[in-house]
Amino acid sequence: MSLQADAQPAPDGTIVFFHPDLGIGGAERLVVDAAVGLQQRGHHVVIFTNHCDRNHCFDECRDGTLDVRVHGEWPIPMSIFNRLTIVCAILRHLQLLIQIALSGELKALKPRAFVVDQLSAGLPLLRYIAPDAPILFYCHFPDLLLAQGRQSALKRLYRLPFDWIEEWSMGFAQAVAVNSEFTKGVVARTWPRLKEKVDTKVVYPCVDTTVKEDNSSASDEVLLGGNHKVILSINRFERKKDIGLAVKAFAAISEDLRRGVRLVLAGGYDPRVAENVEYHTELEALASSHSLKHHTVTSFDTTSLSSIPSDASVLFLLSIPNSIKTSLLRVARLLVYTPSNEHFGIVPLEAMLARVPVLAANTGGPVETIQNMKTGWLRDPEDIGAWSSVMLSVLRMPDQDVQRMGTDGEERVRSLFGRDNMALRLETSINEILSQKHARPSLLVPIGIVISLLLAVLAIYVQIS
Hints:
The structure is a single chain. By secondary structure, the chain is of the alpha/beta class. It has two domains: 10-206 and 420-464, Glycogen Phosphorylase B (Rossmann fold); 218-416, 3-Layer(aba) Sandwich (Rossmann fold), CATH 3.40.50. The chain contains 20 helices and 14 strands. It has helices at 3-6, 26-40, 85-102, 105-108, 123-129, 143-146, 153-170, 181-190, 218-225, 244-251, 255-258, 274-289, 302-306, 322-331, 347-353, 366-369, 384-396, 399-416, 419-435, 444-464; strands at residues 14-21, 44-51, 67-70, 111-117, 135-139, 175-178, 199-202, 229-234, 261-267, 294-297, 314-318, 332-337, 358-361, 376-379. Strand 12 (332-337), helix 15 and strand 13 form a beta-alpha-beta unit. Helix 15 crosses helix 18. Mean pLDDT is 88; it is low at 1-7. Mannosylates Man(2)GlcNAc(2)-dolichol diphosphate and Man(1)GlcNAc(2)-dolichol diphosphate to form Man(3)GlcNAc(2)-dolichol diphosphate. Pathway: Protein modification; protein glycosylation.
């Protein structure tokens, strides 16, 4: 019997999600899948966000599948001169909460429970304005460990109040969910006192294993792959994703053996984000330094795809739509997933579901999803030669062996990482916190919020002074 068949009629009230920016990425995919999964199990779901660009979001956010409501997009910007990003994110989130509370929009939804991810700073305020609805906070990874460039004393001083706010505010959730056993261990080591306040649960992200109408076209596949064997990378254009590892490993294969092979580097790219723009430029320079001819595609109409040079051995595809991703996974012989210590990694699941073997770093979430030598390979991200060797072996491997690994990968994803599995785990977690008694917040909550804002102001002063 399917999980969907076991779903019971949902009680009155809404499960309300909060996510800062519904763009295209692993965190956004998780939120969308979680919301759709709960909706399919009979729950009324609404997602509040500060930003959702219809041209840069998942299909479910624009085709009416999900009720997505955008508030607090202005006047506070995403950043100030590419700085103070965390300050702006927190202020935008607080503005959203205050706006929907004062307007009565939140109360009208009769929230039954909240699912919040990425930003915990608003949890104290959320508890104060809706004390009867428990909160499940989804921690993708501790933000204090994600912050870049903390070598300088000034940067460490700037981050100090936000690190404190992150740990303090998470204590206002009734439970914390994490995306892997790896992340659960990191959370326990980072905040050893947190487990005394809230329960930590592992809720794996998922992929949609249901059969969908194929919107890709044969012409897309021909143009993207040509007559080449395709080694594929799908990741946001961020330095921490270490996409350069794929370029270096590919370049380490001799030119003769690379003939007829194309490395396709595709993924999320937002021109508003300086790092996306800078890293793409750096990767182009890296390809050129290894004498690899490359080409970048930013539009995916027939004209743009037909202009791809046949001799381009490295292809950059910026902000790909789902139809193009489907085409890429259909023609790919191998997916390379380069991030080290990735919290979970949804792309390897998408590849395995499409029967594509995966080469990934032997750290973080992929260790829990990929079976080494059965559905793919796990290799040291510091060992470029090992990655190059796997690439070459896959290019030489008989087609039936590649297909066998692909079949094993698909079976693993369907049995462990489907949307129904995730929705059931999430629903169980929500029901558990609903069954618990939780005290109403005291006046210390608004006092704490004021202190947090003062610390944020101090951090702004330190950053700009």
